[in-house]
Amino acid sequence: MNDNRIVEQIKSFFEPSSVAVVGASKHVDKAGHVIFKNFVENKRLGLFKGDLYPINPREESILGYKCFPSIKSLPVNEIELVVIVVPAAFVPQVMQDAKEKCSKAAIIISSGFSEVGNRELENEVRRIAFEGNIRVLGPNCLGVYDPVSGVDTLFLPITKTLISGEEVIATPRPKEGKIAIVTQSGAFGVAALDYLAGRQLGISKFVSFGNRIDLDESDLLNYFLHDKRTEVILMYIESVRSGNKFIETAKNVTRIKPVIALKTGKTKAGAKAALSHTASIAGLDEVYNAAFFQAGIIRAQNMNEFFNMGKALSMQPPARGKNICIITDAGGPGIMVADECELKGLKIESISEDGLRKLEVLRESGQIPKFASLSNPIDLTGSVTSDMIAKVTEIVYHDKKVDGIVLLGLHHVPGLQEDYVDRIALITSSREKPIIACDIGETEMALYVRSKFEKFGIPAYASPEDAACAMYALCYYGEYLNNLNRCK
Ligand code: COA
User: Which residues fall within 8 angstroms of residue 282, CB to CB, at 6 or more apart?
Assistant: First the structure.
């Protein structure tokens, strides 16, 4: 099918003019209640602007909205998006009704299809969707969350009440940002939302596609290529439905936006689990490595890498080369970054002769410690001050031999004040090469410094390994783009 047509069709999931929630419920502990309430709340906040209808044969009204026994009984001719939260056996009938109301999109939250061997039921739903030209997400999925349009089909309540009576945030919804989350696993997707919200990182859109009887990872990649709010795509997959389609689509996307993939089911045990989770055939891991490489997708090996890379690519430009300069006030952590960078194939070479001369002038004139080490890593030692770190960063940032900087400003030393962050942000504001910050620690000052960096768009990490991993992603993507340009 024409790519542009699919992109248009997928818009019905994120910006529908009308939504029916089938299985909306008054019972607060039911999925259908949470989903319907999300829409009601977002309508009240002025985010969701479409018409909203609860469908439940047992109720007169839910949360102040008149309830209808079925989609067919709605007093309108068309319903753009249908969210289905009823047991699997009822889904075909609901889809038939949606077909009669000319629905364009359906999100099937219900489990109980091919993932438990119920292929016939799944095929029946697929057939009805195809006949009715209804695009489907799911079944066995969470659907979508869009912080701007207010479409939120996540059945995970935002807050929960502890046994003590205290209300706590349970599944936060991240603010608006540049990262799109595309996930086959709903549970992993929700964990991702919690993680990102906790780290004050925003998302453009979230989509969970489960058993993908219709729309798959390639269709969604294609959609996010065209989505103006998305700058980086983070994708969790257990398998790819069509290898060729995926590689071709991903190639188109990665020349414009970076894609990071977390592919699970690497081992025999993992592959078996994927089969019963989303009915996925995980396939040979080496084949995936080769496909990702060919398509310019950056593969994260674990959750930590996934988010570290995503954060870096959403904030900083890709690196033009692989020569990384480490500026530090702490010898040990500086070596740790150097080790990790080199293990990942990056280079830790000296800066240019000209740059070195400028640093020597600083050292000889006492503007940085006499005992500072000027080889890479540049170690300003525990006698560092904000002024020293800023002066050195200025020289290194403009050094032609340097492709990226990892800056370790461990806040514990007496002479370093948090004002250095403002100065680094100013020096690097041209975004001509990437900079990554690292401050180790989990208490107030470390959290404050890292969040201050990120407010300026400089990703900050709590460990040398995480910082190196982030820089690796920027170099990997930069090298991929360079190679593409060379082949033109
Ligand atoms: N049309 C409209 N409403 C219907 C209906 C139909 N055809 N059939 C049932 N309903 C109503 C029910 O009466 C009920 O409303 P009530 O609370 O007022 O009684 C509501 O819809 C829900 O039906 P119920 O039978 O109570 O199901 P449930 O809420 O316990 O579970 C699912 C429904 C979809 C959540 C459940 O079947 C399921 O699949 N759970 C797993 C979901 C999951 O994990 N998905 C993957 C995420 S990654």
Answer: 238, 239, 264, 265, 266, 270, 271, 274, 275
State in Å: Cα 114 to ligand 1 middle: 18
Chain length of the chain: 488
Separation of 67 CA from ligand 1 center, angstroms? 16
Domains in the chain, please, with CATH?
A: 1-155 (3.40.50.720), 172-315 (3.40.50.261), 318-486 (3.40.50.261)
> Rounded to the nearest whole angstrom, what is the distance from the C-alpha of residue 485 to the centroid of ligand 1?
52
- At 166, list the tokens: 């205290």
Q: How far is the CA of 68 from the centre of ligand 1 (A)?
A: 15
pLDDT in tens, 402-457: 999 999 999 999 999 999 999 999 999 999 999 999 999 999 999 999 999 999 99
For residue 201, the one-letter residue type is L
Q: State how far the Cα of 10 lies from the Cα of 135, in Å rounded to an integer.
A: 8
Pocket lined around ligand 1, Cβ cut-off 6 Å: 22-23, 25-27, 30-32, 55-59, 85-87, 90, 94, 109-112, 140-142, 186-187, 210
Under a CB-based contact definition with an 8 Å cutoff, are residues 53 and 74 in contact?
Answer: yes
Reference 98, options 70, 138, 140, 126; nearest CA is: 70
Tokens standing for residue 267: 């081992």
- Please give the average per-residue pLDDT across 280-287, as a whole number: 76
CA 317, 319, 323: angle at the middle one, nearest 5?
Answer: 150
Q: Which atom of ligand 1 is nearest to the CA of 93?
A: 7
pTM comes to: 0.95
Is the pLDDT assigned to residue 486 strictly greater than 90? no
Best residue for ligand 1 mutational test, from 86, 90, 107, 144 (most atoms within 8 Å of Cβ): 86
What is the H or E stretch that residue 422 is in? helix 419-427
